[in-house]
């Protein structure tokens, strides 16, 4: 593909992806369309072994790899199983093969040894389960789509796995206000299809949408690809139904945009990773489906400053905000090494080459003509300012999806590259990428790849380091270095992934002791026996 | 003014308000410009007696009008005053004249009898004050701009008034991200000016902006006029610094858009009305200043359905959302009786007449030309559908402000009409207005006026009933009727005003007992002695 000329832009704004159909996405998963993404094997562990690298080693038991001690919870007895079977006939799973899958996170980084999986269908069943567990002092690990990044959704030891998979009913949708009320186990992508047919879209979107559950999204305060435009779940979630640790039900499935009657209790559960209560149903404000969607995939010119090309990314973002204004719906970036891995492991080829950075700019608006004009103005400005090497624009849905796949499937490509050390950082925009070259120099050949990508518009870097296998030595070179680097810049050591099991001990890099103490008090208030998702979110006491 | 014709619209989209300059706004307060609104006497009680109706009666002491008993807090002694004077030299106010003003809410509906006002400048001073009060079991009533609607910001008995008025420093502003960090006592309008000069606007706006403090906005989770576009403070507030009841400081002035490290503690304090902690500083995400703002003020055709004209309001809203999409920034409505009161008490004249309802539609976008085209398309559709009787459009700032004054100053007009029974309800859109005619029939001549207006786009009705003076009999005709009506429709009995003192006992109409119990537990956890804003938010135990 030849570099663009400004003159081409005016005529070719609705240019499709220039490579032939199918060329962008190869491999057995087919078209790799963004939606439906059922064809995209995410997370691999849920899609069968064909998605895993051949010869993938058995995942080490969490209890063996990490210095963690089982707390004095009861063990599940035959009487407990009989009680559960009475509550959930035929939905108490003890089959070792099924349990093997749900004991491991999809990143294959942690593994528990639970001996029972419960699959309730109703809030009342969840309530009965928790009442029993509370009385018996049995620990519970709630599990949605098991697509988390921090080992929060699988047991650490023998906690009972409480799956929301069968709680997948849509309860109501109001097609004027766009309010959706549904059970926690609804898969995000299926919800998206439901509301799209009615003129709306979900206010959040993420790579794992084909597997993740809305309850899990809420419990982890998922950010994702639409955060820039539609904001946080803390604003878009209108109400929750939650079962507390003792089995009592907190009903708050409000459909109101505004409600200032007392403390906003739902906020306690958003982002608390199942440690304060189990989300059983969600009321969420959907947003009108845009009439026009454009995606521009752009290669940035290598610059000469500290991080060659990154200043150009930032300047492109500034132009983008100024020219696209209210129609800007995503500004994602990835570095050249990400792009190589996506090509190598997934067979996706990139329509733009030879740049140190690539950005994906999406517009979503209500007028095809206006949005095209705005996008043209932005691209002309970026081109005439010498920021871009090359790029392509798509408006047709399939092409839009193909361009998005290059960004969305990076996680999957990384997981095929070996063991992945994952960091999800919030940092000041100006320094968002600086840690990546710093780490490349620091780690040298010990790392296969050090890559950076993420939601630039939200100040959110996904920093990933791959290696042949887990190594304590490499880990020690990374941690606490990455956390200290982040803390020194007042960043967050978990922007959107949460803390789960694997990050719980680093909370202190982003939160002061007084905050941590108050969090412990909240946990003690809501779950005095500590049975809900133990060993997660809050650090082990020294 | 003649009714529009579609053909006029295409040519006259940037039509100014048709009446001569100044005609819209009369009276001694001058131009009534929307911004700066320092000229608008809001709240009247802070502007001196000239804003009050002449002969306004003395406000009854809360302790006498309401069935409330003083809790066994200590009384302020000379030793306490000396200790405070040592902490805040010259800023311990015991002057009865000053205290008279800060003991009464601006609506003149409640009055406390505090004997001391403290005016700290720093978080450290607030911390020292609360540490002392906690040790001494002295109750504290935090006060920002004292512009609340529910008696939440003045003492009920002799609580110490802790004012944020001198905590008015802007701490930082980042002109790429738009993150503002400031002390709690900054006045919203002044913050608006600061960020507007730097290319941003505040994500919230409300009629009281000339007096209200950002800390109070956060503490009450203020909604206001930009909620439809920029959402809730729960999404736009990035961080808080809060002093807890025992004087300890919870530092969380993050500037990060995303941070999932543990429970989001700031959410506890947003909307908790000073009962869980005192907000001392705020980090908030401002939004880019729109390049183009249009306001259309429209008269609706009287229809024939249950509420004549209201179906037309709803249909206009539907067209608005479809045609204006992402540039729609406000959709406010008011009924004919509101308009009469604004004319009678404030001397404002309306450019549109003779309709049962009026709507104010605002667009805010990044392109003058595109926004005009979208607005034209909407107006043509609404006109050709026979929804509108008349209307006017403004783009020039002064005219925009004049049209906004018609909506923003309704509260003020009502306060001059006599005693006001105020209800702030969230209701399903379809039934948003039905309670107003229902109440007119129910109350008959006992009420001077029953009016409805508000943020239609957010499903938020401000229902106001005026009468010559407070009367227990009229109150009994209104309550619990209004609350039961609202609860039967699963609405909220306080959409955005909070509960404060006057609404605390009606929380049960919108929240179940389990939620209320958890709120009490949270209060007990964070403020075990109950010294922070007692008698507010949570109901008195039976």
The oligomerization state is homodimer
CATH topology name of the largest domain in chain A, in short, is: Alpha-Beta Plaits
Output the radius of gyration of chain A: 23 Å
Mean pLDDT of chain A, nearest integer? 89
Structural class of chain A: alpha+beta
Strand content of chain A: 15-25%
End-to-end gap of chain A: 58 Å
CATH class group of the largest domain in chain A:
Alpha Beta
Tell the overall outline of chain A: globular
Low-confidence stretches of chain A: 1-54
CATH architectural designation of the largest domain in chain A: 2-Layer Sandwich
Task: Tell me about the largest β-sheet of chain A.
Answer: 7 strands, antiparallel
Strand order, main sheet of chain A: write it out: 15-12-14-13-17-18-16
């Amino acid at each position: 593909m030849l570099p663009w000329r400004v003159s081409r832009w005016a005529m070719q704004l609705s240019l499709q992806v220039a490579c032939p159909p199918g060329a962008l996405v190869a491999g057995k998963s087919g078209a790799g369309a963004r939606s439906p993404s059922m064809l995209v094997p995410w997370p691999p562990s849920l899609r069968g072994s064909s998605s895993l690298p051949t010869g993938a080693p058995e995942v080490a038991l969490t209890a063996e790899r990490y210095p963690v001690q089982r707390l004095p919870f009861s063990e599940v007895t035959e009487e407990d199983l009989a009680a559960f079977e009475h509550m959930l006939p035929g939905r108490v799973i003890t089959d070792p093969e099924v349990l093997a899958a749900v004991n491991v996170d999809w990143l294959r980084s942690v593994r528990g040894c639970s001996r029972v999986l419960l699959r309730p269908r109703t809030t009342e069943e969840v309530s009965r389960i928790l009442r029993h567990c509370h009385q018996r002092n049995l620990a519970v690990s709630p599990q949605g789509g098991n697509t988390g990044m921090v080992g929060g959704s699988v047991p650490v030891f023998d906690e009972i796995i409480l799956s929301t998979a069968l709680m997948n009913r849509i309860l109501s949708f109001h097609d004027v206000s766009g309010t959706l009320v549904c059970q926690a186990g609804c898969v995000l992508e299926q919800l998206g299809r439901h509301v799209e047919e009615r003129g709306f879209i979900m206010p959040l979107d993420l790579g794992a949408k084909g597997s993740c559950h809305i309850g899990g999204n809420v419990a982890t305060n998922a950010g994702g690809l639409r955060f820039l435009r539609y904001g946080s779940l803390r604003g878009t979630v209108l109400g929750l139904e939650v079962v507390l640790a003792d089995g009592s039900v907190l009903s708050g499935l409000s459909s109101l945009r505004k409600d200032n009657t007392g403390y906003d209790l739902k906020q306690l559960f958003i982002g608390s990773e199942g440690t304060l209560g189990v989300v059983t149903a969600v009321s969420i404000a959907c947003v009108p489906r845009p009439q026009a969607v454009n995606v521009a995939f752009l290669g940035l010119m290598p610059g000469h400053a500290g991080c060659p090309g990154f200043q150009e990314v930032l300047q492109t973002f500034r132009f983008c905000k100024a020219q696209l204004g209210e129609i800007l719906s995503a500004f994602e970036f990835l570095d050249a090494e990400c792009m190589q891995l996506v090509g190598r492991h997934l067979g996706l080829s990139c329509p733009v080459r030879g740049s140190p950075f690539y950005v994906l700019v999406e517009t979503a608006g209500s007028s095809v003509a206006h949005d095209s004009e705005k996008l043209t103005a932005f691209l002309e400005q970026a081109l005439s300012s010498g920021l871009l090497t090359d790029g392509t624009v798509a408006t047709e849905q399939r092409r839009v999806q193909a361009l998005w796949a290059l960004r969305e499937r990076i996680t999957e490509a990384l997981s095929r590259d070996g063991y992945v050390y994952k960091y999800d950082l919030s940092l000041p925009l100006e320094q968002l990428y600086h840690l990546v070259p710093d780490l490349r120099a620091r780690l040298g050949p010990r790392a296969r790849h050090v890559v950076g990508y993420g939601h630039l518009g939200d100040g959110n870097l996904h920093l990933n380091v791959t290696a042949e296998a887990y190594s304590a030595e490499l880990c020690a070179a990374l941690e606490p270095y990455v956390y200290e680097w982040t803390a020194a810049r007042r960043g967050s050591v978990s922007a959107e992934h949460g803390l789960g099991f694997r990050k719980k001990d680093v909370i202190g890099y982003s939160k002061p002791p007084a905050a941590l103490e108050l969090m412990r008090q909240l946990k003690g208030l809501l779950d005095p026996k500590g049975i809900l998702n133990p060993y997660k979110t809050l650090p082990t006491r020294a």
